[in-house]
C-alpha cells in the first residue's frame, strides 16, 4: 500500500474516533464532583471519592491515583477501615496500570487483608481480581487463574454480574495464553452472555469483546476476530476507555501482520502506542513498540526502527527491570511462612522469565547490529554496556540469594534460642518446686542418721521391748519418703527437659485443667517481682467435668506458659507506672465450646493498640525493650496451637485497659 494510502487510513481512523464522545465520562464525573462539593468529611465522602476515581481509571490514571490517596487519608482520619481497604486497592490498581508492579502488589496485599478483616466481600473480590491482573502481567497465568477464580466466586455470591463478566473473561485470557483454546472460548462465550443479559453498566464490555477477538484469531477465524475488535473499539470510544482502546489497536495490528497486510498493521500499532502513552500503559507500549520495530526493520526504515526499539527497551525496563525484580523478591520474602513454597516457585519462574528476556534481548541486539553495520563502533559500546549490566544483575541476584539463605539460617537459630529461653523462664518455678521434695529428703535423712547414731541409742538396761522394731520401722518409712520425694524431683526435672526438647512429640490424653494450673504456677514463680510492688492476683475458673483431651503436653504447656508470662509482664509493667488504686489481676478460665475446649487468659495490664495486636503473632515482632524479648514467643505459641494442634489462637486488647488471649483446640 503506498504511503499516501497509509496516511488516509490513519486520518479515517482518527475521524472515526472523533465521531464518538471524546470525554464520555464527563457528565457522570461532573455530577459526582457536584455531589462531592456538598458532602461532609465522613465515610460517605470516602466512597464518593473512590467512585469519582474509578471514572478516570481508563483515561486519566494520575487523577485516579490522586483521588484514591485523598480517600485513603480521609478514611484513616474518620476510622473507616472498609474505605481504607478499598482506597488501598484503588491505589494498587492505578500503580499496576502505570507499570509499578511491586508497589501495586504490596498495596493489593494490604487491601486484601483489610477487606477480609472488615468482612468487605466486594473489596476482597476487587483485590483478588487485581492480584490476578498483576500475575497476568508477570506471565504467571496459572497463579492469575487462581486469583481470578476467587474473585469470580465472590462476585457471583454478591450478585454483581458486570464484575463477574470481567473475572470470567480474564480467566479466558489466561487459558488463551496457556494455549488451552477450548477452555478459553468457553469462558469468553460465558462472559459475552453475561454482558448480553445485563447490558448496564457495561464495565467489562470492551475487555470481553477484545478477548473474544483474540481467541477467534488464535482459532484461525480472522474475519470473526476483526468483527469483535471493531465492536470493542466502539465500546472504548463510548466510554473514553483509552487503555482497552490501545490494547485493541495492538491486537488488530497483530492480526493484520498475520494476514500479511503490513501497512494496516503499521497504522494500528502506531495508534496503540499513542493511546497507551496517554494513560502511561507501559505493557501495551512495550508490545506495540516491539511490533513496530519489526515492521520498520522489514521496510529498512532504520531511524523509525531505532526509535521504537528505544521505546520498547524503556518500557521493558520500567516493567521488568532488575530494580523491580529485586523489589518483588524482597516483598515476597516478607510474606507469611505458609506461602514459602509458592513464593519460591514464583521466584524460579521469574528467573526463567528474566533469562529468556535477556536471551531475546541479545538476539535482538544481534539483528540490530546487522541492520546498523555502518555504526558498528557504537554498537560494540552498547554490547559492552549490556554485558556489564548483565554481570551486575547476576551479582545482585547472587547477593540476594546469599542474603536469603543467611536470613533463613539466622531465623532457625533464633527459633531454637527462643525455645531454650523457655527453659530459663521455667528455672525459677522449677527451683521452687524442687525445694519441697529436697527439703523433705534432707529432713528424713537426718532423722534416719539420728536413729542409727550409737550414742543416741538406749542401753540394754534402758531398752524397752519393741523399741528396735520401732526404730527399724521408722527407718523404713523414712527411706520410703526419701524415695518418693526423689522420684518427684526426677519427674520435675524430666518435665523441664521435655519443655526444652525440640521437634515434635506424640500426643497423649491429659487433664487440661491440671496442665493449665501447673504452667500458671510455674509462670508465676518464674517471673521477676519488682521491688516495692504488691503480689499479682490470680483468678482461675476451670470448667467442671472436662474430658481428657489428646495433646502434646510439653508443646501446649510451652504455649500456655508463654501466654501466662506475657500476662504477668503486662500487669507488672502497668504496676510500675504508679497508677493510683491499680490492682494487678490475671484471670484464667477453661470451658468446653461444642467440639472444642477453650482457654482464656485475661489481664488488666497495659494492653495493646489495634495495630500492635494485628502484628502480635508475627515472628520477631515485640513491644518489649531491647534484651527483654526476641519477638518469637507468641509466634511459637501460635504455631504450636494452630499447626501442632489444629486449633486457633486469637487476641483481643484495648490499650491501657486489658488484653485477652483465647486458645481453642479440638476436644
TrEMBL record:
Domain named Histidine kinase: residues: 429-667
Transmembrane segments: none
Annotated keywords: Coiled coil, Phosphoprotein, Signal
Superkingdom of source: Bacteria
Alphabetical list of SMART domains matching this protein: HATPase_c (SM00387), HisKA (SM00388), TPR (SM00028)
Catalytic activity: ATP + protein L-histidine = ADP + protein N-phospho-L-histidine
First and last residue of the signal peptide: 1-24
Residue ranges the record marks as coiled coil: 383-413
Enzyme Commission number(s) from the entry: 2.7.13.3
Record-linked PROSITE patterns: HIS_KIN
Name of the protein this chain belongs to: histidine kinase
